[in-house]
Amino acid sequence: MTTISNIDLHCHTTASDGSLSPTAIVARAYGRGLNVLAITDHDLVAGVEEGIRAAEKCNALLLAHAPDAPREHYLKDTAEVLSVDNGVLDRPDEERLLTVIPGVEFSTTWNDEQIHVAGLFMDINHPRLQQLVQSRRVARTERALAIAAKLERLGFERPYERCVAAAQEGATITRGNYARLIFADGKAKSVDDAFHQYLRRGQPAYVQTKWGPIDEVIEVVTEAGGVAVLAHPRRYNFSNQRLRRLINDFKSWGGQAMEVSSAQQKPTDRDYLANLCQQYELLASLGSDFHSEGMYRDLGQNLDLPAHLTPVWTCEAAAKFGLSGDFKQRLVHVTYHKEESPASQQAATAAQFGAISSTSHQASSTPAKALGRPGSIVHL
Ligand code: AMP
Ligand code: MN
Ligand code: MN
Ligand code: MN
């Protein structure tokens, strides 16, 4: 069974390592019945305005009941709706409006570990935020070129240029972009496998990077009128004690929220994070971390905040976007009967890079492994 939430506060577009443009991701959000979507690309906010404009346009079409207004179409032929919590499946157009929230996902370094901190609800034109984005851009470009040099030595053709061409103008090129390129070129069984073989610490295309400190990010996001959110705390592979230390530092530096619910997450992990969230008196956020089409990570997918937590959208900063405690999460429970094959995923990824698609490697591992069952992936 799959649950689709009408609010998702973490996703990526072609402004960083996502495969869909901001306009396309917004269209997908309407298709899946979302009412609130935060665009949180890595270290920049270049996709936000396009997303907001696309939603404004679609909302106007819905309010006019125009024939070309976006439809909900997450109900594929292969899907069956089991139930809907807090609402009905066939909603009137007025209940299908989408609000795009400005967001960002900053990379930071804490005790030599790479930690991601999302910013939500901030003014993306705030001078200090723009400054921080600019300095990250310089660091990211340097690193992306260093990774490309390694990949070229390993036989990949023009990796940096091809990633730039597949992303939007001015995008940040992350390891996520390279992982998709490696997969597209048929040199790995999946995006995850590309990380294992090439991009992780200790692998041949890894480049060590020192990002800025967490407190700087919290300060800038807060000053820009936003809320700092500790992203996917369960994915750092930390011991309980180390994670508590991280959350404690995050909170003492002014961080206000943490992600409790993510797409590829076991219920036990969500409950564990819910406990920590409550203990440290943080606001609870939720986000799919959607990057590209796949079975286990999609907009709104598998996101469910326990009712006893205080959702992040009740904070003061969210009020600017019409959100308050009155907003209730709606969940549609669906089953899909057919799984996508890894080979079709590889073909779709290859098409994005105008690839050099290889015949040398048949993506032949089991679908579950290639696509990543819930909990099987360590993504940052
Ligand atoms: P970077 O910020 O350049 O180090 O790249 C990190 C990005 O790579 C993350 O945001 C994910 O999108 C992606 N990523 C990290 N680990 C994995 C993995 N094991 N499999 C697939 N993608 C990953
Ligand atoms: Mn990413
Ligand atoms: Mn992310
Ligand atoms: Mn992340």
TrEMBL record:
Residues 7-110 form the Polymerase/histidinol phosphatase N-terminal domain. Residues 358-380 are annotated as: Disordered. GO terms for molecular function: 5'-3' DNA exonuclease activity; 5'-3' RNA exonuclease activity. It holds the Pfam family PHP. InterPro entries: PHP_dom, PHP_domain, Pol/His_phosphatase_N, Pol/histidinol_Pase-like. It comes from the Bacteria. This is PHP domain-containing protein. It comes from Candidatus Anaerobiospirillum pullistercoris.
